[in-house]
Design brief:
CATH architecture: Alpha-Beta Horseshoe
Strand order of the largest sheet: 6-5-4-3-2-1-10-11-12
Helix content: 25-40%
CATH superfamily: pyruvate-formate lyase- activating enzyme
Shape: globular
Number of helices: 10
Order of helices and strands: EHHEHEHEHHEHHEEEHEEEEEHEE
Low-confidence stretches: 296-309
CATH topology: pyruvate-formate lyase- activating enzyme
């Protein structure tokens, strides 16, 4: 994938789910959906930066954004995308018709097992997963590994087996029963997580090897962080040059909500001149990709790698 800058684009706050481990509260997730431009406007704004982008669409639930498939079509005419989604919205079925899968880096499909059971309907997820995978979209199914989800992981494996997929345990970062995770994982839970992560790597290995590069949201190696999150503070980082964060209104930040860098829609975005020390905290997936500080756990090192020119 020949791109020069990647963005973690927080497209919207609104979501049709209310998962208890979400970073956002019910009031935020249930807020009225706000849009700040249409697909043509967003596409033109990114085009006019002169860069080729890899845009990671997240939220909220990106697929509920108005004219979502058209937005993806317009963006991928010149740029690349990746996606976090709960795979429930009907708009996802239109992607194979309008989007070239070679323009999609990865789709992280969140299984959210317990939330789906409350709604008593797994059919939309399974149907959309089958449709996207049949069209050769790079799909990885993740399951946030809360203690209760780990206890029921076999249910998730059984649910996905008929469509030829396997759930990847995603590190739980948050609180449950008065405990803070991932620090509160028991040794038994850590061991289970490691075994499941190894099985997931084996399952997805063949597909990942034929892709252009590893997914930025590298959930397949989350077992590296079971004993705690690394600190990137002070390490030299190319955020601001090769990576930025974009907010729903088009505001651009170097990372973590600070250090403003203009607005995409207002055509005021300007990249930094070069790398600078980390002075904030954002997402360890992107930190590991763009920081000089690559964490090491259990003899495996997650080396940072840079987006291609």
């Amino acid at each position: 994938m020949n791109y020069s800058i990647e963005a973690d684009w927080h497209l919207l706050d609104t979501c049709n789910y209310r998962c208890g481990y979400c970073f956002f509260g019910p009031e935020t997730l249930g807020a009225k959906l706000r849009t700040f431009s249409d697909p043509s406007g967003w596409g033109s704004a990114f085009d006019e930066t002169g860069a080729i982008w890899l845009l990671h669409l997240t939220g909220g639930e990106p697929s509920i954004y108005p004219d979502f498939a058209t937005l993806c079509e317009r963006l991928t005419a010149r740029h690349y995308i990746s996606l976090n989604s709960n795979l429930t919205h009907a708009s996802l079925a239109d992607l194979p018709r309008v989007v070239d899968p070679s323009r999609v880096s990865f789709i992280n499909a969140g299984l959210h097992l317990e939330e789906r059971e409350l709604r008593k309907n797994n059919a939309p997820f399974l149907r959309n997963a089958e449709t996207l995978r049949a069209a050769d979209f790079p799909l990885i199914v993740s399951l946030v590994a809360t203690p209760s989800a780990l206890r029921r992981f076999d249910d998730a494996i059984a649910l996905l087996a008929p469509i030829g997929l396997f759930p990847v345990p995603k590190l739980f970062r948050g609180s449950a029963d008065g405990k803070i995770y991932p620090q509160a994982y028991t040794e038994q839970e850590k061991q289970q997580f490691r075994l499941l992560a190894a099985r997931a790597r084996d399952f997805y290995q063949a597909d990942l090897l034929r892709r252009a590069e590893p997914p930025s949201i590298d959930i397949l190696n989350d077992d590296l962080f079971l004993d705690g999150m690394p600190s990137y503070k002070g390490a030299l980082c190319t955020a601001g040059v090769r990576f930025v964060q974009i907010l729903p209104n088009g505001d651009v930040r170097r990372c973590g909500g600070g250090d403003p860098m203009g607005n995409i829609l207002a055509r005021t975005f300007a990249r930094r001149a070069g790398p600078a020390p980390c002075d904030t905290q954002h997402c360890y997936y992107f930190c590991n990709k763009y920081s000089d500080a690559g964490p090491q756990r259990d003899g495996r090192t997650m080396q940072p790698f840079l987006a291609a020119e």
